Amino acid sequence: MALAGCPDSFLHHPYYQDNVDRASHRPREGVGPSFQASCSHNSPSHQEDDVDLEALVNDMNSSFDSLYSICCTQSETTPLIHNGQLACSQLASSGTNSPQPTSPKQKLRRSQPMHILTVRRLQEDDQFRTSSLPAIPNPFPELCSPASSPVLTPGSMPQNPPTHNHVIKVFSEDGTSKAIELPSDMTARDVCQLLIYKCHCVDDNSWTLIEHHPHLGLERCLEDHELVIQVQSTWIMGNESRFLFRKNYAKYEFFKHPVSFFPEQMVACCQELNGSSAHSQVLQNFLNSSSSPEIQGSLHVREVGRKSWKKLSVFLRRSGLYFSSKGTSKEPRHLQLLADIEDNNVFSLVAGKKTYSAPTDYGFCIKPIKMRNETKDLRLLCAEDEQSRTCWMTAFRLLKYGILLYQNYRIPQQRKTLLSHFSTPVRSISENSLVAMDFSGHTGRVIENPAEAQNAAMEEGQTWRKRSQRMNTLGNSSPLHPPTLGHTIHRTQPWFHGRISRKEAHSMIEKQGPVDGLFLLRDSQSNPKTFVLTLYCQQKIRHFQILPFEDNGQLVFSLDDGNTRFTDLIQLVEFYQLNRGILPCKLKHYCSQISL
User: Fold this and answer.
1) pLDDT in the model for residue 38
2) Contact at 8 Å (CB) between 286 and 398?
3) Residue 594 CB contacts under 8 Å (≥ 6 apart), including other chains
């Protein structure tokens, strides 16, 4: 007979067989030993029933203790599956190899708590075992691959590392600065967008972050994808390195006009194909990592550890920057490595003649990302003109970053494409509630025709000019010195920079990216009554004098000796932004400075 709830090892125990024989003289089939033992406890014909039942209970308890020790031992050594359940095969094998039960005389101490061994333990890396934690059903099983399980386990859940904020200081060209707090994964584009928002600047996709080292006379424009905190971490403590916030119109100009950036005599593939290779193909060769473009030319190279410069034939390839030790030879045995591309950045020299006795004003530098010795690790080079320097620096950027530069260029273009789908600009609720009105008659009326409303707005914009002319005629006897609004409002415009010298105007044009149509207006130092238009066009900076004229008692301004006259400088700038006139090109971009 099988005892309900007892293991097989207990049924074959000799004490069990002896107690069953003494418990009842009339065993019945279908009745378990436990039931017979309970019946014999109430029978008056046996005097040793109490002693036999106590031995039986002790035997049962000892069997249960042995079973519990086996399970506990297996739970510590056997991995759990199916949410903490042991495999059936493992339970079967553990039953066959179970140890013998302890002595029946060992009694269970019911008054003391039993120690239960736990299965959930922490590993050494302070993480929970995946098998010991409950499984979490995945709410999106269709996103899982067929090989992966649709159940999220604690080990598969992403763990976001804690982000630490850092404080950096950004300077403007006028010396003002702003301290901003940003996380470690913030890019240069994100920092520019933040500063544009805080300073209320016009976002024309030309604002950039500049890495400036005044003690070395070096600066470069950070790429939009570069991490600002990572760049700052490479600086040497104690130096005056800083970030500058200013415009750079020429940052991605080579994608629009590659002809002016890559002359045919400097690109090797154009020479080998006798100029038949289009410049668009040259850009594709730079962006394609499998191609091997090459820039070649003569550069002045400063010798390491010396102040002397030497003119050499230099070649820029994907593997690095090389110079030839024997004339213009390209043989591998004559080429020596100047600097590699991956571990270096290209900088432009600021005041190279004064700092490094450079032979020309068009110097640039190959600087290691992590410097050991500032005087020996720099590779100083000088080109003959601005176009050559721009070609070398642009080619270095393209070989270093490749397709990333094109992606940075396309992000603002894609944003413009998305905004162009809207017929009208996004306005606030108060602006949407405004309508065009006409008060010329006895009663006002709403102007419903859009063309008529636009004409009315243009006429209203010219009202202050007409009012200024009438006040000038009535209240001033000398039209050359009028204290009116029409002749002073230009000082509030971002393109007017007051009394700056010609040299300062040149420096501002060069720093903000020399592209065709970049201009500024300033007071003339030679003649206090006139103004000067400084314009960059066709790789040259030109200056045009704006002269005042008297026209029927009114003060007007002109660039062409009075043939085209304007009542103020704002009208003059707006005209030449739409018409070329006597200028070599239209006015496109203006140099501006902001205060942070």
Assistant:
1) 43
2) yes
3) 172, 174, 199, 201, 245
Distance, CA of 413 to CA of 41 (rounded, Å): 96
- Tell me which amino acid residue 459 is: E
Residue 358: CB atoms within 10 Å: 21
For residue 58, give every residue at least 6 positions away whose Cβ sits within 8 Å of its Cβ, in sequence order, or none: 104, 105, 106, 107
Residue 404 burial class via C-beta count within 10 angstroms: exposed 0-12, middle 13-18, buried 19 and up: middle
Q: What is the mean pLDDT of residues 282-294?
A: 78
The CB density around residue 428, as the number of other CB atoms within 10 Å, is 7
Dihedral, CA of residue 209, residue 213, residue 217 and residue 220, to nearest 10 = -30
Q: What are 589's strand-pairing partners?
A: 518
Summarize pLDDT for 403-412 with one digit per residue, the tens: 999 999 998 8
Q: What angle do CA 248, 254, 258 make, to 5 degrees?
A: 150
Per-residue pLDDT for 251 more than 80? yes
> H-helix or E-strand containing 570?
helix 569-578
Helix 463-475 to helix 450-461 angle (10° resolution) is 30
- φ, ψ of residue 465 to 5 degrees: the values are -70, -40
Q: At residue 316, what are phi and psi to the nearest 5 degrees?
A: -110, 120
What's the rounded Cα separation, in Å, for the pair 483 and 301?
56
CA gap 260, 390 in Å, rounded: 9
* Residue 537, beta-bridge partner list: 540
Q: Higher confidence at residue 495 or residue 99?
A: 495
With cut-offs at 50, 70 and 90, classify the pLDDT of residue 416. Answer: low
| Residue 402, number of CB atoms within 10 A of its CB | 15
**β pairing state of 554-558 and 540-551:** antiparallel
**Alpha-carbon radius of gyration of the chain:** 44
Least confidently predicted of 160-174, 309-323, 494-508: 160-174
Average pLDDT for 324-330:
89
CA distance 249 to 510: 10
The SS3 assignment for 128 reads strand
Q: What pLDDT digit, counting tens, does each position of 5-40 carry?
A: 444 544 454 544 554 444 444 444 444 444 444 444
Residues across the chain: 596
